[in-house]
Specification:
96 residues; single chain; alpha+beta; 5 strands; YaeB-like fold; 5-stranded mixed beta sheet; globular
Length: 96
């Protein structure tokens, strides 16, 4: 999959070092694998949940939540947000 862009992962990991290994693992798996649908994605990330048009990933034992728009047909992943669990629960990231 092509990930657009890695910058939010790096910025979050800099602020929250405990999430770094989980984010690195997510990035490596996503970059090296091509997923054609949610069922295939869930084989690698069982906790991935669709929320509207977005997919939410629990990262590093719930240290972070990664929210992405995944275009399976074009094999692209657009990172929308990387949040702490508390920020995620506030719900400000949700699309109207």
């Amino acid at each position: 999959m092509r990930i657009i862009t890695r910058k939010p992962l790096l910025e979050f990991a800099q602020k929250h070092p405990a999430a770094r290994s989980g984010l690195d693992h997510w990035y490596r798996v996503m970059k090296q694998t091509t997923f054609d649908n949610l069922a295939e994605l869930r084989r690698a990330f069982p906790s991935a949940d669709p929320v509207g048009k977005l997919t939410v990933f629990n990262i590093g034992g719930n240290k972070a939540r990664l929210i992405a728009a995944i275009h399976y047909n074009g094999h692209r992943v657009y990172i929308r947000h990387v949040l702490t669990h508390e920020e995620y629960d506030q719900g400000k990231w949700k699309e109207p």
